[in-house]
Design goal:
With 168 residues, this protein is mainly beta. It has a domain at 29-145: Immunoglobulin-like (Sandwich), CATH 2.60.40. It contains one helix and ten strands, in the order αββββββββββ. A hairpin with a 7-residue loop joins β1 and β2. The termini are far apart. Residues 12-27 and 151-168 have low confidence and may be disordered. This is Copper chaperone PCu(A)C. It comes from Halomonas alkalicola.
Length: 168
């Protein structure tokens, strides 16, 4: 009488194995939402990219590198308060805690695209690759948009990401 239940049991075990395998893959991946690149004047050689990174897994992860064919160099950055003055600093990684999100936004964590290979116009699409501390890469496309900053934390139309930014 066990034999009629055997096909059901095999199907249930196969489904369970697939679900567990899917969770392992998800635990090592990163979801990206609202990716966008700041539109800047045609003479600007730098811009910034913003997005929300979500870690659906049960282990912390970090973005340790970023690359884009739109720029000669792509760096991870943060704004920090130094004696009452906001300054941009390169960071080694952008962490995303398990089950949480990290926002890359004006005035905070962001990606810097330095030495743009061509002017970026509103509506253009920019390819970006994020490299995680696990070695996994995530490719995404971010539209170029005009991004307004409220509160006066950044100066100038390019948000303080102007041409003289090569001091790192």
């Amino acid at each position: 009488m066990l034999y009629p239940a055997l096909p059901f049991l095999r199907t249930a075990l196969a489904g369970l194995a697939l679900a567990l395998a899917s969770q392992t893959v998800l635990a090592q991946s990163l979801a990206v939402e609202n990716a966008q690149v700041r539109a800047v004047p045609p003479v600007s050689t730098t811009t910034a990219a913003f997005m929300v990174l979500t870690n659906p897994g049960d282990g912390d992860l970090a973005v340790v590198e970023a690359h884009s064919p739109a720029a000669g160099t792509t760096e991870l950055h943060n704004h920090v308060d130094v004696d009452g003055v906001m300054q941009m600093r390169r960071v080694d990684e952008i962490g995303v805690s398990a089950g949480a999100s990290t926002e890359l936004a004006p005035g905070g964590l962001h990606l810097m695209l330095i030495d743009l290979v061509a002017p970026l116009h509103e509506g253009d699409e920019v390819e970006i690759t994020l490299v995680l501390d696990s070695g996994e890469s995530l490719e995404l496309t971010a539209p170029v948009r005009r991004i307004e900053v409220m509160g006066g934390g950044m100066h100038g139309q390019d948000g303080g990401h102007g041409g003289g930014h090569h001091g790192h």
